[in-house]
Amino acid sequence: MAKIRVLIAKPGLDGHDRGALVISQGLRDHGMEVVYTGLRQSPAQIAKAAIQEDVDVVGLSSLSGAHRTLFPKVVEELKAANASDIPVIGGGVIPAEDIPFLVEQGVKKIFTSGSSIEDLANYIIDLVSPTEKEITKKISHIGIAVKSIEQSLPFYIKKLGLKLEGMEEVESENVKVAFLKIGESRFELLEPTDDTSPIYKFIEKKGEGIHHIALDVDDIELRMRNLSKNGIQFINAEPKTGAHQSTIAFIHPKSAHGVLFELCEEAGGDQT
Ligand code: ZN
C-alpha cells in the first residue's frame, strides 16, 4: 500500500518549531511520509503545498494563540482550491474552550498537549483508510452484449441451467436487459433497442461478448467522489438510473486497465 502522506505546517508568526519537528519525526517512525513546510506559512501557502504534495491530511501546529483565525483559514483555502477532501487536524497550545469552535469551522480534530504520537498516528490511519462503505464486496453482475436476448436465452437457461429473473428496458442506455441469477451475482444480457445504443456500437465494433463488470456498492456518490479524487475517470460524471431502479455509473476503461466497470447501487440499499 502507498504510504500515508502528511503535511505538517505552522501557520502564522510563532517562531518555535521543535514541537512540529518532533511530530514529523514521530509520524515518520509510524511509516508515514511527512512534508514539513517550515515556519511562518500563510494559510494560502499551506493549502497550495498540501495540493502540490498530494497529501492525505494536513496537520497544523500553533503555539501563538492565532489558531482561531488561522486554522479555519486553511480549511477555507483548501475549499477554495477544490481540495476540501483533504482533512485538516490541529494541535499545539489550544485552550479546550476553543475546540468546539474549530471543529465547527471544519477542523477534523484537535490534539491537545496530553495526546501521544500513537494517538495521532492511529487517528490519521483511521481517517485516511477506506471506510466500510468504500470496500467493494461483490460483483453485482456481468454485462454481456447480445444481438438478440431471445436467441441467446436458451444457452443460459437450457445449457447452463440458470433461471431468468426478469426482463426490462433501460431507457437511459437504449437497451433491453435480461437478468439471470448465478449464485450471489447475475448475468445481464444486453440487447440494443436501436442503433444509437452503446451496445449496438459495441457489437458493431467487437461482436457479441462480455461488455462490463458491475461492482456492487453501498454509496455510489461517495465512491464516485473518492475515485474521482484519486484520478479515476468516469464515462458519466453523474450517476444515472439503471435496471431495477438501481443507480449506476461507468468507470472509463482507460482508468481501469481496459475493463469497463460499472458501479451499481441497488435500489433500497442492502438487499443481499
Ligand atoms: Zn450493468
Task: Walk me through the structure.
- There is one protein chain.
- By secondary structure, the protein is α/β, with parallel strands linked by helices.
- It folds into 2 domains: 5-132, Cobalamin-binding domain (Rossmann fold, 3-Layer(aba) Sandwich), CATH 3.40.50.280; 139-269, 2,3-Dihydroxybiphenyl 1,2-Dioxygenase, domain 1, CATH 3.10.180.10.
- It has 8 helices and 13 strands.
- The chain has helices at 18-29, 43-52, 67-80, 99-104, 117-128, 149-159, 198-206, 220-229; strands at residues 5-9, 33-36, 57-62, 88-92, 109-111, 138-145, 163-170, 175-182, 185-192, 209-216, 240-241, 247-251, 261-265.
- The protein has an 8-stranded mixed β-sheet. It has a 5-stranded parallel β-sheet with strand order 2-1-3-4-5, with helices on both faces.
- α2 crosses α3 (67-80).
- The model has no long low-confidence stretch (mean pLDDT 91).
- Bound molecules: zinc ion.
